Amino acid sequence: MTKSTPSQSSSLDDWLCYLESVHPANIAMGLERVAQVADDVGLLGTSSKIILIAGTNGKGTTARCLESLLLAQGHTVGTYASPHLIRYNERVRINGAELDDQFHVDAFDLLEKGRSDTPLTYFEYATLGALAIFKRHAVDYVLLEVGLGGRFDATNIVTPFASVITTVDLDHKEYLGDTRELVGYDKAGIFRTNTPAIVGDLAIPHTVTDYGKKINAQMHLSGRDFKFVEHATRFSWQCKEFNYEFDKPAIPCQNVATALTTLKVLGLLPSEAVIRRCLNDLVVEGRFQKLSKSPLVYTDVAHNPESARYLARKLAQYKDKGFKIHALAAMLADKDKVTVLKEVSPLVDAWSLAGLDCFRGDTVDNIAKSMDAVNTNAPIERFDSVDIALDSVLPRLDEQTLLIVFGSFITVAAAINYWKK
């Protein structure tokens, strides 16, 4: 039974509980409903220039890099990201800062009054709510992260100033398909005719470029129009007349290169000194985030094969320094657990598996079954939750062991909250 409708004086928690109850599905593909509501409440006409960002991985870090570089030049920026780690307010930032609850409440109240009897999913409410907040603040630029795929995602109702695809890999196969070509075609749906389309993937599926050519998008492709090279402590980026070298940032160099190329294409690239300063200060929560120096503990949202490969490369750097790796993994039920665990397994000296008691969360027994398909001789422990696992593991860590807590945004949130306590 649907809960009573909150009002403009209700709490954000009341609204979020309501939004979770008013649509029977967590995901509903298609743009007709959400576009109609957006039009009815006046969200499609905006002075802000929108950069639409899709990709299997790297959306959040690319958006954070773009945000930093635009703010450093005095532009006002609205950023929409999902999911959140700890608080819903993380999903919407104005000039790099989260907003008070009332801004979200006002946006949801506007949508509820304007949607009539049109059903919206939680994500569609969140997306339209973000657009309402950005319009209210009249920001210069909006960085809009695509939630799922691209073509039929709620974010794709906008008219982008530029479209960006960070990476293409397998995730959400039940919606997007089980090949990179199918996934790439879906993500290319955010391209527009005669509009810049920047693709950062290192092995771009032909379906992406085929679609871009078909609609005459202004494509700028990794490996053809821009390149980056990683070194031990540095990385270089080349695009047309620009050839810069920087210290390695805390986020993947691939995503930095994609962000820099996007700004170059749009005529918004700041000076080399500004870029250097922004990259040195860039930190993104949950992306190989250090929680503790002693014992050495990191956490990472890696939850699909591509992000697991990136995590493995980060862990290998510590392995080369003589560290042992203890992995604490907790994942969602609908993820490719076997492949994710296999990517990291060769580096792991001991495993702790934990269950996630949440929507879509998997049990520790199911994660253990996935480990049966992983070729490892490392010892494996089981725990009912991330908290219980940390209580057990942390006292036993020595100075030459790194603990990595990974597997989902919910896993990272649990680790961060544990440290805050």
TrEMBL record:
<dbReference type="GO" id="GO:0004326">
    <property type="term" value="F:tetrahydrofolylpolyglutamate synthase activity"/>
</dbReference>
<comment type="function">
    <text>Functions in two distinct reactions of the de novo folate biosynthetic pathway. Catalyzes the addition of a glutamate residue to dihydropteroate (7,8-dihydropteroate or H2Pte) to form dihydrofolate (7,8-dihydrofolate monoglutamate or H2Pte-Glu). Also catalyzes successive additions of L-glutamate to tetrahydrofolate or 10-formyltetrahydrofolate or 5,10-methylenetetrahydrofolate, leading to folylpolyglutamate derivatives.</text>
</comment>
<keyword id="KW-0436">Ligase</keyword>
<keyword id="KW-0460">Magnesium</keyword>
<feature type="domain" description="Mur ligase C-terminal">
    <location>
        <begin position="286"/>
        <end position="409"/>
    </location>
</feature>
<feature type="domain" description="Mur ligase central">
    <location>
        <begin position="53"/>
        <end position="196"/>
    </location>
</feature>
<dbReference type="InterPro" id="IPR013221">
    <property type="entry name" value="Mur_ligase_cen"/>
</dbReference>
<keyword id="KW-0289">Folate biosynthesis</keyword>
<comment type="similarity">
    <text>Belongs to the folylpolyglutamate synthase family.</text>
</comment>
<dbReference type="InterPro" id="IPR036565">
    <property type="entry name" value="Mur-like_cat_sf"/>
</dbReference>
<dbReference type="Pfam" id="PF02875">
    <property type="entry name" value="Mur_ligase_C"/>
</dbReference>
<feature type="transmembrane region" description="Helical">
    <location>
        <begin position="401"/>
        <end position="419"/>
    </location>
</feature>
<dbReference type="InterPro" id="IPR018109">
    <property type="entry name" value="Folylpolyglutamate_synth_CS"/>
</dbReference>
<dbReference type="Pfam" id="PF08245">
    <property type="entry name" value="Mur_ligase_M"/>
</dbReference>
<dbReference type="GO" id="GO:0046654">
    <property type="term" value="P:tetrahydrofolate biosynthetic process"/>
</dbReference>
<keyword id="KW-0812">Transmembrane</keyword>
<keyword id="KW-0067">ATP-binding</keyword>
<protein>
    <recommendedName>
        <fullName>Dihydrofolate synthase/folylpolyglutamate synthase</fullName>
        <ecNumber>6.3.2.12</ecNumber>
        <ecNumber>6.3.2.17</ecNumber>
    </recommendedName>
</protein>
<dbReference type="InterPro" id="IPR001645">
    <property type="entry name" value="Folylpolyglutamate_synth"/>
</dbReference>
<keyword id="KW-0547">Nucleotide-binding</keyword>
<dbReference type="GO" id="GO:0046656">
    <property type="term" value="P:folic acid biosynthetic process"/>
</dbReference>
<dbReference type="GO" id="GO:0005737">
    <property type="term" value="C:cytoplasm"/>
</dbReference>
<dbReference type="GO" id="GO:0046872">
    <property type="term" value="F:metal ion binding"/>
</dbReference>
<dbReference type="GO" id="GO:0005524">
    <property type="term" value="F:ATP binding"/>
</dbReference>
<keyword id="KW-0472">Membrane</keyword>
<dbReference type="InterPro" id="IPR036615">
    <property type="entry name" value="Mur_ligase_C_dom_sf"/>
</dbReference>
<comment type="pathway">
    <text>Cofactor biosynthesis; tetrahydrofolate biosynthesis; 7,8-dihydrofolate from 2-amino-4-hydroxy-6-hydroxymethyl-7,8-dihydropteridine diphosphate and 4-aminobenzoate: step 2/2.</text>
</comment>
<dbReference type="GO" id="GO:0008841">
    <property type="term" value="F:dihydrofolate synthase activity"/>
</dbReference>
<keyword id="KW-0479">Metal-binding</keyword>
<comment type="pathway">
    <text>Cofactor biosynthesis; tetrahydrofolylpolyglutamate biosynthesis.</text>
</comment>
<keyword id="KW-1133">Transmembrane helix</keyword>
<dbReference type="InterPro" id="IPR004101">
    <property type="entry name" value="Mur_ligase_C"/>
</dbReference>
